[in-house]
Amino acid sequence: MEELQKLCDEVPVFPNNVAFKIFEDELGYSVNDILMDISEEPIAAASIGQVYKAKLKDTGEDIALKI
After folding, report:
1. Backbone phi, psi, residue 30, to 5°
2. Rounded distance, CA 60 to CA 35, Å?
3. Distance from C-alpha of 63 to C-alpha of 29, rounded to nearest angstrom
4. Cβ distance 45 to 12 under 8 Å?
5. For the segment 17-53, what is each residue's pLDDT rounded down to a tens digit?
6. Which pTM value belongs to this model?
7. Distance between CA atoms of residues 3 and 6, nearest Å
8. Which residue, among 24, 27, 37, has the nearest Cα to 63 in the 3D structure?
């Protein structure tokens, strides 16, 4: 169980340009179209993605963006 947990917890991040390209391909918008602020680096990474702290342009709401 401990070894499997490492697969979730000790995952290296992938480059931001790759993450933001995935975002754009999936949603059809660039990150800058929807967000007014996004962390320069992911705040977390796991086996199926990484998470950025961001702020929505429309509402100003702080969000966690998982890519």
Report:
1. -80, 160
2. 9
3. 17
4. yes
5. 999 999 999 999 999 999 999 999 999 887 778 999 9
6. 0.80
7. 5
8. 37
